[in-house]
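User: Predict the structure for this protein chain, please.
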Amino acid sequence: MTTHPTGPPATTPFVPPQPERRRWWHTFLAPAGPLPLAPPPVPSTVTFRHDVPQPILVPARGDAFDFRLHAVYTWTAQNMAYEELRLRAERYLAWAGGIVRERAVELARQYEPHRSHDLERALNDRLAGQRWPREGSQPHFRVQVRVSPDERVRERLRPYWEERIKLECDHELQKIRAQQADELTRRWCAVLQSLEDDPVTAHAARLTGEQFAEVFRRYVQERRETVPELVELLREAVRGHGDLGMGPSEYTEAWDAAIRTYERRHGLGERVN
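Assistant: Here is the predicted structure, written as C-alpha cells:
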C-alpha cells in the first residue's frame, strides 16, 4: 500500500470579526455627514416698521381735552440682523415717544380739540425729513403720526356730522329730482309739440291712455285759446299805427308778419278780414 505524503494544511483567508470588518470598511468608504450650514448673510440695510398701539396724549387748546397721537416709527440700520433691530426699537420705544411728544405739545395747544385733522397735517409736516439720532451710523428712526380727537369730543361731533350728512344727502336727492324733472319736461314738451302739429294726433293720443288724452286735449285747447287773443292784440297794434297816419314801417311790417305766421300755423287764416 502506497501512502502519499500529505502537504501542509490549506490556509483560509483571515476575516476580521464583524466590528473590526465594519471599521475597516468605513476607513475606505466613510459615509458623508451633513455639511455645516453657513450663517445667512446680513443685509446691508434693514428696516423695521413699529406701529405702536398705545397713543401719546398731548393737550389741545384750552387744556380741557387731549389729542391722541398714534405714532408709526420706521427704524433703519446698516449691517444688522432684523431681529436685533426689532429688539432695539422696542427697547428705545419710550425714548422715541418722548421725542414725538416734545415736538407736538406746543403745536397741539394751537388747535381746538375738534381740529385733529389740521394738527395731523401740521405735525407731519414738522416731522417730515427728520431722523433720530440726527447723526452717526447707528440705527435711527423716522416717524409719522395719525391724530384723533378725545373720545368726549367725538361724542360731541357725532350729532353735527349726522345732521350734515342728512343735509348733504337731501341736497343731492333734490338735485337728482330737479335733473329728472327737467329732462322729463323737455321730453314731454317735444312730444306735445310734435303731436300738436299732426292733425291725427288728437285721436291717436287716446291710444296711450285716457289720462294722457285728457291732458293733451286740455293742452291743445288752452294753446288755441291764447292764439286768437294774441293775434287780435297784434292786429290792433298794426291798426293803431295806421290810424295815426304813420304809414308802413319796419316795425309795423314785423308785427304784420307775426300775425300771418300765427294765423297760418293755427288755421286762422279764414278769420282775417
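Residues 1-9 have pLDDT under 50 and may be disordered.
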